Amino acid sequence: MATLQGLEIRQSSAGLRGTHTGIRNVPTVSKYIDTTICIGCKACEVACQQWNDLPLAKTEQVGTYQTMPETQPNYWNLIKFREVEPVEGFAWLMRKDQCMHCADPGCLAACPAPGAIVQYQNGIVDVNPEQCIGCGLCESGCPFDIPRYTAGSNKMAKCTLCVDRVEVGLEPACVKACPTGCLQFGEKSALLEMAAHRVGQLHADGFKNASTYDPPGVGGTGVITILKHGDHPEWYGLPKDPHVPTAIGFWKKILHPIGFVAMAGAVFATVAHYMSVGPKQPPESSRNGDDV
Amino acid sequence: MSELVPGASHLSGPNIMDAARYQEDAVVGDEIVRHKLSARFIHWAVALFFVGALFTGLPVWSPVFAWMGAFFGGLQVCRWLHAWLGVAFTVASVAMFLQWFRQMTFDATDRGFSVAKYMNSGSVQEEPEVGRYNGGQKFFFWAVGLGALALLLSGTVLWWPTTFPIPLRWVAIILHDIAFIAFFAAIVGHIYLGTAAEPGTFHSMTRGTVTKAWARMHHPRWYREVTGAKSKATVTELGKKS
Predict the structure, then answer these.
(1) Which of A238, A258, B5, B156 is 20 to 30 Å from the Cα of A139, by its Cα?
(2) Looking at the structure, do residues A168 and A45 belong to the same domain, yes or no?
(3) Taking residues B193-210, what's their average pLDDT?
(4) pTM for the whole thing?
């Protein structure tokens, strides 16, 4: 939680204002994932469980090397294995599925509890369980299917980008554990340069469609991913053009103002009617002083 | 019922209150029983659960109303209390629907009802053929029924976060919002019409009776029916009728 860790808040769910002064220059951080050199060892999964004190999770055979079908409330980081057959040849794709830490987070937009989902000045999107009311609306706002409602505690859980490590100058646990260097952590601007360089290498190697996945629909993400088949993010299980769902935007930006106007309007209309037209008074009443 | 003396002069005496408990349309002195006790009880149960659900729902709806949540122990409490109040509201609404729906079928007079005309006509007698309920009241009844159904269906989807597909939850979020906003505006109008705008009306929902003058003005046909055109019907006759 922000105040305990001294992190400034950039934006918060349900309209709470940020706590940053705007004076200090806090760089946006990012995680860099190069799927082309991921070997699927899952050291990152183990490191995540260990650092975050998450319990051992039950594995489930899904017909690939994947640990389980989906991330869980207590399993925030999952390497997804996919086999696809492009026009020619065969591709075995691995991707690190986790919270993307969007610059424009749909979960935060949908959340009705003030301060339950916050985005720190460094770009990390975090959940504050004390404020979370367990409504699950964040799930409806996320284009990446990341927030996990925890039955029992009625709280949402997801990757924190190891904000507790980042805040004291360490890299996230998964990055520390990665043996191939496919995971990196740092300032986003620097990592984007590194990504551009790596994409250039891939182009030279013949992967003409290689690109960096940093979708603009959500304002860019705090987790950038290098894809060999950048023209087909869906092969990796990534949405092609993710954005905060239209329904959530319509609800918060259009329906809410209409609601306020309609509710206040109804009250004003009755007052105006009472003053201009007035009540319908029966011609005579035998009830004196008791006529409501 | 023998103690119900027609023409007994006083409103809050034991006679009128006995009639108001069980016998709708009974005429005692200057008073007519409009809503028997059970009808009033059901109405106020619906109102109580509606207000409860409203005040636990508003703080979740917008942070502008977050302070309301404090009265119930915070937003976490509102999140589950709202859903259970919704269940209670549904149960009470079903009872209210069953109690009144037979009286709410539209007739030719109702179809000619105009809200604008009604609201601007001042203290005049309604159309002579307006019965126990006017067209606006009947429309309100069915609209509230439809709104309650929309709140129930969308609320069910929203209650269980992981059960329903996400596109369905988008629909539920928007439907729940539209239904409650319309409900809020409608209830403000309902409260206004039942109190300040129509003196005498609120009494029919508290102690159950209205005055003859009130009935003649707002519901002329109903007035003629219960009083037997110009002559006063005796309570025993009315007892047979109901």
Answers:
(1) A258
(2) yes
(3) 94
(4) 0.88
